[in-house]
Design goal:
- This protein is mostly beta strands.
- It folds into two domains: 30 residues; 212 residues, Jelly Rolls.
- It is built from one helix and 16 strands.
- The strands form two sheets. Strands 1, 3, 4, 5, 7, 12, 13, 14 and 16 form a nine-stranded antiparallel β-sheet that branches.
- The radius of gyration is 22 Å and the shape is globular.
- The relative contact order is 0.23.
């Protein structure tokens, strides 16, 4: 092969390699580093999970108790039922990762299912330690609990709320993924994107919370009725958290 043709062939090969490298870098996820993963075979560790106790400010019809949260046999169960220890009232539960992971940007993955139940809602959210934007990214109000087929994602900032919603049978197992990076939050159901927020995106650390409630969640909801099962469980198969960058 003449020298000129060899030079051209080498230059073309170099250009192809550079293009492939750049394409690989562009397609690489910014959420490669997993910093937390848990399946729930053992009791919750207090330095990782804080169990809620008391009447939540968000949900005046609810009561939370640590005894309503169980981790065993590969699932975290947050159980809602009439509890004799609280005068036979409906009691729910919740957990927070505020002690373990507070970070700016990242990816959170939760695999979950929940029983049908009129009057029992659920929420998986990212919350700041103080004031600021709250991201409810797997939320269903208690008035929708009888069907358990709608989940919403909402950015709360000031007096404003921005919504998205997705439909599926959430009595079956599904995986929800929230990805948060500068200027953008997206949420996927089983790999399919259904929420995409690009305005009023927070830029300060937040932590994961998982909770259930009866009655109002501050905006909508009903109390359990005669059709509500005696025991209603939100089950979490696993939780994973990834760092951004």
């Amino acid at each position: 092969m003449p020298r000129t043709r060899r030079v051209r062939a080498a230059a073309a090969a170099f250009a192809l390699i550079a293009t492939l490298v750049l394409a690989s870098q562009a397609s690489a996820s910014p959420f490669q580093h997993r910093i937390f993963y848990q399946q729930f075979h053992h009791a919750l560790k207090p330095h990782t999970w804080t169990l809620y106790n008391g009447v939540p400010t968000c949900c005046k019809d609810s009561r939370w108790a640590p005894t309503h949260v169980r981790s065993r046999h590969g699932a975290l169960r947050i159980r809602t039922y009439k509890d004799a220890a609280y005068g036979g009232k409906w009691v729910s539960g919740g957990v927070s990762m505020a002690r373990m992971v507070n970070q700016t940007y990242g990816r959170w993955v939760v695999r979950f299912r929940m029983d049908k139940a009129v009057g029992v809602g659920m929420d998986v959210a990212l919350r700041p330690s103080g004031n600021g934007t709250v991201v409810d990214w797997i939320e269903e109000s208690s008035d929708k609990g009888g069907a358990r087929r709608i989940e919403t994602a909402t950015l709360h900032y000031g007096n404003t709320r921005v919504h998205a919603r997705v439909r599926a049978n959430f009595t079956k197992w599904h995986t929800m993924t929230l990805s948060w990076k500068p200027g953008r939050i997206t949420v996927k159901l089983d790999g399919r994107r259904w929420a995409d927020f690009r305005h009023h995106i927070p830029s300060s650390p937040m932590h994961l919370v998982i909770q259930t409630n009866t009655g109002t969640n501050g905006f909508a909801g009903v109390m359990p009725n005669a059709s509500t099962p005696r025991l209603v469980a939100l089950q979490i198969d696993y939780v994973a958290v990834y760092r951004y960058g």
